[in-house]
Write a structure and sequence with these properties.
With about 130 residues, the chain is mostly helical. It contains 4 helices and no strands. Helix content is about 45%, strand content about 0%. InterPro entries: CHCH, Ribosomal_mS37_met.
Length: about 130
Amino acid sequence: MKLTDVYFKTCPVKKFTNYRNLGYKYKVVRIPALKDSVTSRQHNTEEAPCVNEMTRMMDCWKRTDFNQAICGKEASVFMACMAAAEAEAKVSKERADKGLPNKGSSLLPSNQVNQLLAKYPQPTKSNFKD
């Protein structure tokens, strides 16, 4: 015989006791509404660009005892990758200055979010009943 069987035989179980009225009303401590503005911050998920190309170039240098002439192809690939990464960063910065989201991002810039929040202000505490 299990212990639960003994317990249930000695004291009857009342159903739905967890739904009973506890005798107090929920008090709103903090208003469940958004603020009317958001802080401006940039999402810095900066990863080092061209890590694979740099690793290949350094590996080539190590194999050839740091001979620049033999590893010219790897160095040129690394430099081309860095130039492309810098151009992409420049475009991203220009888009951020104009207030546009980055490519592939669904997040709005903070100034646009502030404009939307100003257009539709949040309710005040007087709208809530205690």
